[in-house]
User: Fold these one by one.
Assistant:
Number 1:
Amino acid sequence: MAPDETLDESTIDDMVGEAALQLWAAAQTDFDPFQLPSPEWPDTTVPVRDVDIAVDTGLEEDDVRASLARLDGVKVVVGREAGTVSVLRAIPQDTPL
């Protein structure tokens, strides 16, 4: 899908943040982050690739990557490896910045 010119960065960030959280939570096989308090989340988690977020949101991969860069350390922890940007961990909403 072509990027929608009416979407601003804030809207894109909201879309990417929500999709990243949902996909990241769904990818976890050893625990449910919606049921387990965040201090009890294990360090080993299943990452979610930027391309998967792009497919889920219908946004261009470059737009997703730019949004993940803005959200890194705020809503998600992002990792980069071999040209892939991945969400390594979600940051709980109750975490002080």
Number 2:
Amino acid sequence: MPMRFSDKLHKPRTRINSVQGSGSGQEFDESESFDSYIEKIVRKKNLSPEEASIAMRILMSDKVSEYQQGEFLTAMAMKEPTAEELASFAYTLRKLAEPMELKGIKARTALVDTCGTGGGTLETFNVSTTIMFILAAAGIIIAKHGNKAITSKCGSADVLEELGVNINLKPQEVAECISKIGIGFIFAPNFHKAFKNVQKIRKKLPFPTIFNVLGPLANPTFSLENTKTEYSQVLGVNKPELTEKIAEVLKYLQVKRAIVVHGFNGMDEKGMDELSTVGKTKVSELKADGHIDNYFLEPEEFELKRANPKDLLGGTPSENAKILVDILRGKDKGPKRDIVLLNAAAGLYVGGKAKDIKDGIKLAEQKIDSLAAYKKLEDLISFSKNS
């Protein structure tokens, strides 16, 4: 029997030093040399899964200098991480996160996250946040992992907070929210407390680091050890060349089905971390049998009008909150609704509620027009405020 990816990852053998700032008490072996990993990466050599896992534990600790952190992140950016390295880093970040156990979810139920890397050159409104309510209304369990704005004016946490959602629930409260109403928001800073140890160096470095990609991969509810839940994901990336690699990462991380996308704006290379109604979309689809298909989609295939980029732009949290509500209440029937329908359809497809994208669009329309999706927003606001 071939070795599973999870068997290659680092399992702490010696209880020496805990990673400061993590809630899980995970530990690493201090005898491992961080400098040796930096040297290996500088020589353009790839880390093994175990080495990558140990390196991430040390990087996230308070046991290395800011200079060493910078060396590691710079060398990794120059080498470019492999899918195996990214999967190992993501697995380790999940293990270092505050623990959260979901209860009451039936076996083989699809647990779906809708997220993107951010950093797209075309700054849309909060599409992936809007679609989470449509998917939840269709019976898909949603564990939305997100943060406040880093590369845009308004992140998922910003718009949800503006809408009245309490984003600062404790882990057990988030777990209860997901289990009871089928939808929950995992505010990254509350779960990944060890990130405080790399905040300074991330701000100082003049280029995107591996953490820009790792954010959507570090959902703490997605576990390699839990074989009962089938994880699915719709994940947008800010560069077209990343779709295949990230699909491969999700395969390593035992995601059952996923669609990784990069949308173009139809006129030049500027794009978005969403399925596009402005131009074509590059898709890397991870299927249930583990095969990855790569293809392009055009909005006309789904009888959607090609949009103008300016029609999809977002703004401040209050502006984006109004956009989200107008779509879910059926008031906005224009291009913003169209891009939401397309992206929601992808989520309904990987979540097993639609046979294909076209079928997913019809279902998404139904969940909006019946106000079922808006009701899910109300449920989340009510539950989070009363927890």
